[in-house]
Amino acid sequence: MSQRSPRIVLVEDSAADAEMMTLAIEKSGIAADIVVLPTGPQALAYLGDTENSCDLLLLDLNLPLITGFEVLEQVRSISRLKTLPIVIMSGSTNSEEIDRCYSLGANSYIAKPNHLEEIFACGESLMRYWFGCVRLPTRAV
Question: If DSSP codes are grouped into helix, strand and coil, which group holds residue 95?
């Protein structure tokens, strides 16, 4: 029996950032299904639909309409998503924002890298950690 590819939901309003992270994930050598959503409402609609599934949520904080903080808080209020791994990826290194993310239930906080090589290294590390080292809960469906 073959193992299924992990599904990653990337919530990122910057098309360039989303494209770079998607490329970095693909270059990691670990096959994944990547769903890119540019707004908080789209993320909440996708994650709230029991027909959709997700193994890892990569969430930007500065989103239009509904902030990443609000998405994080609302996702953690959904019973079946309480164990969904959530990694915040933000340009902010503000300690108050980082602390707030962890207090709202984020599993990790990554400051977005600036250079292409750093983005690729981050994507590879992220994939190897979450899908190589960690034993994840059953996929939230």
Answer: helix
